[in-house]
Amino acid sequence: MAGTSAAVLNCFSAGTVTATAETPDYVAGFCPYNDVLTEDCYYDHDNAPLDDDYATPKPTAEMKTQSTFSGWNFGSVWKLGAFTGGNRKSITNEDGDYGIPVKDGAIDVFLELDPSDGYPFLQFETKKRITKSGRTRCDWYVRGGMPEPPPTEGVMYSWGANFDGQLGNGSSDSDPHPAPTQIGSAIWKLLSAGDSHSLGIKSDGTLWAWGDNYYGQLGLGDTTNRNEPTQVGTSKWLFVSAGNGFSLGIKENGTLWAWGFNQHGGLGLGDETDRDEPTQVGSDTWIAIACGYRHALGIKTNGSLWSWGYNSVGQLGLGDTTKRNVPTQIGSATWTAIASRENHSLALKSDGTLWSCGYNYYGQLGIGNYDDKNTLQQIGSDTWKLISAGTQFSICIKSDDTLWSWGNNWAGQLGIGDTTKRNTPQQIGSEKWKAISCGSDHVMATKPDDTLWAWGDNYMGELGLGTYDYDEHSEPEQVGTAEWILVDAGGYFNLAIKKP
After folding, report:
1. Topology of 154-498 in CATH?
2. Residue 494's beta-bridge partner residues?
3. What pTM, to 2 d.p., does this model score?
């Protein structure tokens, strides 16, 4: 859907919005969910609007009889943009300057919506002048409506290896499962594929686990494998990460919990004893977690970065190779994203710069050499938005939505048409991408149109192409024609959420 722009109110305090002779029929056009985009309507806040009060849409015929609307809460109207998941852009002038004030006289002001971020929450057809003279008075006009938000939940699919029941299909076997297959009819909001076990959060916030349970990584109070999703307690969860034999999770209250293998302190509990049930890690609150092979990374609510567990090649980023059994802070910067799968770590700073540390034999740190690093190293000077780490390689999306890869490439997992390793970021094609997930030696990714693409190793059918082989899949190949909400690549298998 093409992006559009329009003049919008830059006077969020209560004022007077007056229809003009130029636009007598359409004064305002805020339409609720499910209204068609061509229908015009507006909200009457009855001079005393409440926060997030959507009120009742009025038909165009009634709107034509209105000439003045007073006391609208324009701040809460634009607060609706929060539902876009970040699509709402700053108010700008026609030159693209951000945060401009309304000045005396007439200036053009409009809201930019970038369709590459997903979809425009409001669609506008034109822009009018905004004026300010003495008191706040804005002449404006919006036509269009709100499309229904894209789904963030859906049914689960899985494919690839199933030695330990990690596909959740009720069986465990050594056969490849090369085609995405629906697992039940439950609605899921998040899935995490570990080395050989799986975690998922249903739409009601409950946590479920299945697959390998040798170390208690399913959190069910025992060490028995499960081949279909089994509920873990009754708590509500926000996020989970499945690693190699251990699991981390963040509950709805922001607290961090860990369970499974703990020989090197990867659970962060101050000891090296395995746990077969979720155990709380300290009392702080967290916003992000990532499991490596035997280490973990986390970001607290204040943006600080922490690491713990195995540290043989400096993957904790603490300036040494000494393991830690409790979360230990890395520097004082603020961070927004982290990624790990084996023995190297990636982290995205709040300024958008990308950093790495740990094992670098295959150039997976992306810093132009093959030397291990025990402190975080900046990768170039570009800015990035999404990061993912495979076993010995890395693939990330830059701020312009282009896709880049580096590291081990024996199975073509870098997606650049060959099997030669790289130690600096290499662009994969010229298309724009929406999401990325690295497995052990394969990659799953979605484009802005929500189509699914795969490349790399396929010996267990993990690419989802309907076949399994030992061939090199060194360029992205489309997986069917369905639209996907989320995909998470694990150790030779994948979990995904498909649009309902």
Report:
1. Methylamine Dehydrogenase; Chain H (2.130.10)
2. 159, 489
3. 0.74
